[in-house]
Write a structure and sequence with these properties.
Layout (H helix, E strand, L loop, with lengths): L27 E2 L11 H11 L11 H11 L6 E4 L2 H12 L6 E4 L5 H8 L4 E4 L18 E5 L11 H9 L6 E4 L20 E6 L12 E5 L1 H14 L6 H12 L1 H24 L3 E2 L6 E5 L5 H10 L2 E2 L1 E2 L8 E5 L3 H14 L1
Parallel strand pairs: 1-11, 3-4, 3-5, 5-6, 6-7
Antiparallel strand pairs: 2-8, 7-8, 9-10, 10-13, 12-13
Helix pairs in contact: 1-7, 2-7, 3-4, 3-6, 8-10
Bound molecules: 4'-deoxy-4'-aminopyridoxal-5'-phosphate.
4'-deoxy-4'-aminopyridoxal-5'-phosphate (PMP) binds next to α3.
Length: 351
């Protein structure tokens, strides 16, 4: 830290993204929940066309992309905001809807960035522990006295709440905002987007990084009632109005036009997840009930860290977390059938 760094950030511990190895060819990369499939043909085509026009600024309103998203999700364009990844929008939400009197409220085991966003925005936060089996008790979030952030499915556990359970949380927080982070919703859980028409205190965020194979393009969005979107736009327009570049906007539109491609890929990932879970269980692993494109697994015979390290030596990268409650677990992204076969073969060897 330099002597010039503002004291307002003296407690800030930045988010640590999963490893992105320099020499990718050495590894089967199952550590950051990316898709193993390329972006859709139209996403690639539209992006290639858009690069030719990048002497111009991108559309700060993302008009065409928002119209395409509104069409896809059955809402109005005024109910949609786009971001540079959904992280961008989550950060706007911490900034717009949390302050000294309104803490952020989230689980002890969830997306690690929530805590960092709270620290960065210098807002207080209240942590609610998951139950022993890593599930959320919805009642823990009733009358939360703060802005609630729930990843559904949760990360890194993959466990999902039902829409009915989330609706109860929303109903029991008439004076609080509930943000549902649906980064992984396309892999088998049900979305709360339809509830945004019914409740003025709900924000749903989603991303193109997982099911739509566009992690490197950085595109996320939120759906909510018009007033909440206006507030998020006030923060966005006060920081970076051109937050989504034109190549990414074009890729996003292409991906939405190729919806069938995404549906097929999600189906494959779900099937591969189920097959891999069976194999892992045969090897003695204990798993959570994941609805995401990753598996959260521990083994009674070997520490999580040892499994992570030995797999890495064999060229398979998975994600290990140090937090005490989950240190025995690893998060394994679901890749192709071939990648998962290599993983299982290596695990058999290690164990
Ligand atoms: N929410 C959750 C739960 C995530 O795991 C991630 C991915 N790290 C994000 C949001 C952010 O994804 P992105 O910024 O790529 O849209």
């Amino acid at each position: 830290m330099s002597k010039f760094f503002s004291l307002k950030f003296d407690r800030l511990i930045p988010y640590v993204p999963g490893e992105q190895p320099k020499d990718m060819s050495r590894f089967i990369k199952l550590n950051t929940n990316e898709s193993p499939f390329s972006p859709s043909p139209k996403a690639q085509k539209y992006a290639a066309e858009a690069i030719e026009k990048t002497m111009l600024y991108s559309d700060p309103e993302c008009c065409k992309l928002r119209a395409a998203l509104a069409d896809r999700y059955g809402v109005g364009a005024e109910n949609v905001i786009c971001g540079n990844g959904s992280d961008d929008i989550l950060n706007f939400a911490f900034s717009a809807f949390c302050d000294g009197k309104t803490p952020a409220v989230f689980a002890d085991i969830t997306y690690g960035f929530y805590k960092v966003f709270a620290e960065y925005n210098r807002v207080p936060y209240r942590i609610i522990p998951l139950k022993d089996d890593f599930t959320i008790d919805p009642a823990d979030y009733y009358n939360a006295k703060g802005t609630v952030f729930i990843a559904n499915p949760n990360a890194p556990t993959g466990i999902a709440l039902s829409v009915e359970e989330i609706e109860k949380i929303i109903q029991n927080n008439p004076d609080n905002i509930v943000v549902i982070d649906e980064a992984y919703v396309d892999f088998g859980a049900r979305s709360c987007v339809p509830l945004t028409k019914k409740y003025g205190n709900l924000i749903v965020t989603q991303t193109f990084s997982k099911s739509r194979s566009l992690a490197g393009a950085r595109l996320g969005f939120a759906i909510a009632n018009k007033e909440l979107i206006t507030d998020l736009n006030t923060v966005r327009n006060s920081t970076n109005p051109y937050n989504v570049n034109s190549v990414t906007q074009a890729a996003g539109i292409g991906s939405l036009e190729d919806q069938e491609y995404t549906n097929e890929n999600c189906k494959k990932i779900i099937e591969t997840r189920q097959k891999t879970e069976e194999e892992l269980k045969k090897l003695g692993f204990v798993l959570t009930n994941s609805y995401a494109n990753f598996i959260f697994a521990s083994h009674p015979g070997k520490s999580g860290e040892a499994i992570y390290k030995e797999l890495k030596e064999k060229g398979v990268l998975i994600r290990h977390f140090d937090a005490p409650r989950i240190k025995d677990y690893n998060r394994i992204t679901v890749g192709t059938d071939g990648q998962m076969k290599a993983l299982i073969d290596d695990l058999r060897c290690i164990l």
